[in-house]
Structures are given as C-alpha cells and as structure tokens.
Amino acid sequence: MGMTTFSGPVRSNGGFIGPSLNGDFNFTGNYYFVNPLTGSNGYTGTTPAQAFQTLAYALSVCTEGNNDVVYLISEVEDGVTTSATPTSNLNWNKDSTHLIGICAPTLIGQRARIAASGTSFTPLMTVSANNCYIANLSIWGGFASGGASNITLSVTGDRNAFANVSVQGIADSTAAGGTGARVMKLDGAGENTFAGCTFGIDTIARTAANYTIEFAGGSVRNVFESCLFPSFATGSGANGAVVYAAASGGVDRFQLFNNCIFINAVQSSGTAITDLVSLPAAAGGMIVLNNCTTVGFTGLGTANAVGQTYIDMPAPSNSAGGLAVTPSA
Length: 329
Prior knowledge:
The chain has helices spanning 55-61, 173-176, 303-306; strands spanning 10-12, 15-17, 20-21, 25-26, 31-34, 68-73, 90-92, 97-102, 113-115, 125-127, 133-140, 151-155, 161-168, 182-187, 193-195, 198-199, 211-216, 219-225, 228-231, 241-244, 251-258, 261-264, 277-278, 285-290, 293-295, 309-312. The chain is mostly beta strands. Strands 5, 6, 8, 9, 11, 13, 15, 16, 18, 21, 24 and 26 form a twelve-stranded parallel β-sheet that branches. A seven-stranded parallel β-sheet has the order 7-10-12-14-17-20-23. It is globular, with a radius of gyration of 20 Å.
C-alpha cells in the first residue's frame, strides 16, 4: 500500500485532521510557513516550498482569533543563516495566533531563531496578544551595536503559553554593562505560562546590576514551570538579580517558579550574585519558589524581598523542604 504525503493541514467533512501539537490538540486555522533563507514574501506562504521570508509579513496575513499558525523553519545548524532578523520591534499582536519553530527541540539555543542584528532597538520582540502558543524557538538579544537598556522579550498580553522557548537576552557587552537591560519584562501581563523555557545566557559577562525577569504594572499569576535561568555575573553584576520588581504594585497575587534552576557561572570565573530576588517594599503580591535550586548565589532575597517571597526549597539559612515559609535572607 502506498503512502500519501500532504504539504499542509488536512480537513474532511467530519472535521479537522492534523497536524497536531504533541498529539494533544489541533489548531483549526490557517497554516503559514516562514523560511528566512529561501522564502519570499511574494510566495503564498502555505507550504514549506512557498514559505514567506519574514515573520512580520506572515503575521500580517494571519486572521486574529482564527487560531492560525506560523511555522518558523530552520535549515542549517549554525542558526545564523536561517535566523529571522527583524529590523524593528516584532510585535506579536494578534490574539489566538500561534508561532512554532521547526527544529530539534533542544532546551537552549534552538535553531529556529529570532535574532538581533545591526543597530539596537528595544524590545526585540513583544507579545501583546492574548491566548497565543509560542513554542520551540530561541530569541537572541545580542546586537552588533547594542544598547544599555535593551529588553529582549516584552510580554504585555494575557494567558499565553510559551513552551521550550530560549530567551537569550543581555547578549552583547553594551547591554550587559547597562542597569536598564532585561532578558524579559512582563508589564501588566497575567496568567501566562512558561514551560521548559530558558531565560538568559552565560556567555556574555553581566558587569552591571541588571535583571533577568522584571515584573511591572501589576503582573498577576504568571507560572514558570521547569525553567532554566543561566547567568554569568562579574564585578558590579553581582549586585543584580534574576527576579525583580522596581515599583510598588509591580507584582499582583503571585508569580510561581516551580522546579526551576537558577545557575550563575561561578565555576567559570563568575562572581556570586548577592540576591536571587529583588523587590520594593510593597511589591503588591508574592514570589513563590517551589522545589527550586540556586547555584552561584549568596542569598535568596534583598531585605524587602524576603518578606514577600515564599519558598519550599533548600535555602542558605532556612530548613529545607516542608511548609512554604519566608526566607531569612
């Protein structure tokens, strides 16, 4: 019996048939493909052979609320040749519009990649839409000519799911030396889930007090599940933190970090970071760290943070495990 190959999604009178997402569910909208190496925005975008060249153009043809899907294709391992390189902020702004990378599902540095290049702008990518699924890709925030306050990923939308996304921010020396640089900033963003994602890099030394994740604008009930947070601090970089809120009310209700690992490269000439969490006197909510591990930190939180952070994990000056408590340092 022969095999029939279909170039796109298949529909029948009885309903929708594939492709599925991890065998769990199917998207019911249109499917578009982007290939930065061989694609053209003059193509139809509906098959890999007719892929668009840019993500911005692919997003422009999607219909908001239709559960359309954009696939970002990677062809070669180097990740540079086939990276999508926007020249201005890429704002993913259509609700229920999904973005999935076609590459090996590695945890760090996926080769389906959105990458900075040339002169800096910030943020590199914004997710302002709601109810989007973004998966299996990396976002590289290292500019050839960087800026001291660069943000790699800004999330202002609600109820989005990010799975196996590597946000490699503060990835050039200018950003690494700037106190305003962030890997990701959530501003008024609520009920987003980050599962199996990576935030940060350990190849560029952070030489100033900057932060991996910033919460602002009353961000509420965001969940980080089994995520990895690598960093490489030297000098004044030890005064930064991974989890940060600057202004009162930046956090609402809770931000949950479950089974997460925070690794600062102290065995590779890095300097121990003083605090994992930095919060104002009245953050507006709490940070919850459940079953997490820290490497290369001397304390869990600043004086303001310890009263607003709850842990169920080994801590430098608290008993391990048991009922969630506020750490002493």
